[in-house]
Each structure stands twice: as C-alpha cells, then as structure tokens.
Amino acid sequence: MTDPSARSGLRSWLSSNGRLEFCITLVSVTLLTGACVALTLMPRNAGPLQPATDEAEVLNTSAGVDDPRLSPVRRELQPYGPILVRTVTDGAAAEALLVAHPSHSTDLDVLEQQLGRAISDVSAVWGTDWNRAPVVVVASTPAEFTALTRSAGATGTDVAAVSLTGSYTPGTQPSDQRIVFNPDARRRVGDAGLATLLRHELTHLATRADTTDGAPLWMLEGFAEYVAQRDQRTTFSQIAPTLTTRLRAGALPTALVSDPDFTGVDAAYAYESAWSACAFLADRYGITALTTLYQRLATGPQSPATEDAAFTAVLGATRGEVLDGWRAWLRGRIA
Ligand SMILES: [Zn+2]
Prior knowledge:
It comes from Nocardia alba. This is Peptidase MA-like domain-containing protein. Keywords: Membrane, Transmembrane, Transmembrane helix. The structure is a single chain. By secondary structure, this protein is of the alpha/beta class. It folds into two domains: 52-210, Zincin-like; 211-335, no CATH class. The chain is 53% helix and 7% strand. It has helices at 4-15, 19-41, 70-77, 105-126, 142-149, 185-207, 217-229, 236-239, 241-248, 267-285, 287-297, 304-315, 319-334, and strands spanning 84-88, 96-100, 135-138, 160-164, 177-181. The termini are far apart. The model is unreliable at 1-51 (pLDDT under 50). The chain binds zinc ion (ZN). The site of zinc ion (ZN) has 4 residues, from α6 and α7.
C-alpha cells in the first residue's frame, strides 16, 4: 500500500515550479539515451526488430537451422558475426552441416561441392561405421580459429583441425566433433588442397573412436594423409616434395619419424615421410593390413617392442624387413 499523504506530497511537489515538466523531460532524455546506447551495442548486422540473442544470426538458410548441433556452433560464433549454413546429405542418417561467415562463402562453395565425395573416399578405406554427418566450420579470423580449436590443441599455423567439443570416452563414436578450417586455408592450399585437407581431417574424425591420445603420430598422421591422397591425380613428388628432394640427394630414411618431428621446423618432411610409410604399407601388404595396423597401434603410446609385435602380428614382418621394404619402395618412386 502507498501512504496517501506521501502521494499528495509528491503531487504538490511536482505541480510547483514546473517540476512535472522537468521530470517528464528528464525521463524522456534518459529513455532516449538508453535507446541510443542499446542501438550502439547491438550487433552490426542485426536489424532493429531482431531480438538480442546469444547465438550468431543465420543469414541464408532454409535447412539446418533446427538442427540441435547448430545451436552450440551459433553460440560460439556469435561474437564473430552472422553466419551462412549449408547442409550436405551423402546417404548417412543425418545431414552434414557447413558453417562460415559471409566473408568465406567461396570456401563454403568448395567444401559443399567436395564433402559428399570426401566422406565416400574415407569410407572406402575405413568402412561406413563412423559419424558421416560432420559439422564443418570455416573460421573468419585466426582468433576465432584458436577459440574454436582450443580443445584440439591446434596452433595458429594449422590450416585445419578436428575439434572435440564435448567430453570423449575412448572406444565410443563421438558425435560432437567438428572440423574447423583456418580463415586463410583456401588461400594457402588452393581448392584442391582444401579438398585434400577435408579428407585428412575427416579421416581423423572417422578413426577417433579407435584412437587414443599418445599413439605414434607416424601412424595417425600418415594414415590420415594416406586416405587424403589416395586415388587422386597427384604424383609422388607433388604429394611429398620435401621427401623427394632428400631422396634425390641420396638421403633415405633410417627410421619411422618420431612424434617431436611433427611440430618442429621439419614438420612438412615428417608428414610426407609418414604418408609414404603408410602408402608403402598399403601397396605392399594391402589396405586391410594397413587399417588393422592402425587399429592396433592407435590404442595408445607404443614402445619399440609393442610396435615390433604389431608388425609381426599384422604384417608378418620384422621392423628391419618393413624399413628395408619401405626404402626399396622409396627408391622406386624417384627412379
Ligand atoms: Zn592430421
């Protein structure tokens, strides 16, 4: 309840000396100032009728907006502006989602065109028992790329990464993975390179349920690159220019590349060398043997002894025989 004497006191205070007019003016100015501040703080592309939201505005799509996987992506992308969304179906139960900001719509065109075939290429080696409806995001800035891939441990120089957004239980099929492209990936590797990169990252995504952190990188990266490069119209020296140069100079590898080599100045050589080891294994022992070897070695960190045991069990060969065969195969590539 309001005290009647206080109400009449307020009325007489307002009516004397034009205080009512003053208060109305003050309230109007405050409201207008508030409206101006609110307009200034609104996202750049949001229209005045669009309610404030913590999710990025979707500009173009009639499909995919209701997909529950899109909501967390929109929330994370909200600070970076509106987005375009496309969907791709390749026969899997769900649709793949492709997301980018308008500045990267051409990247989206390339990825949309390539995704269905890339999923088939990965399935041709690994089988179809994986999440063939990925979420693919093109970051618009390095900061956005870093924000989206933090959990994957990607660095600012990576051209793409698979990012696991939720908790992950080894042995289970993760559904909350996404592939994130660096904003200048296409400029750096071209359209064909972007498709290769897509197959590489899709392979990491497909094999995730069978892969434990700490497994030897020559196997993890070599296999992803083998699947990415398989059956393409590319030559050995196009796929592995650094390795080719060294082979032509007479330097044959003495061992499989070790994990630290993948992050140092010699990273390009490490990827190429790992690719060539897997390409040799597939050529000599067959794709099934290569895939079985992956499944065995990707279970976690390996010692030379456990790796040797895997070579014997899966390939029926000693490490020495594998290395000798690989070197002979490499010599044949540059002959
Ligand atoms: Zn990789």
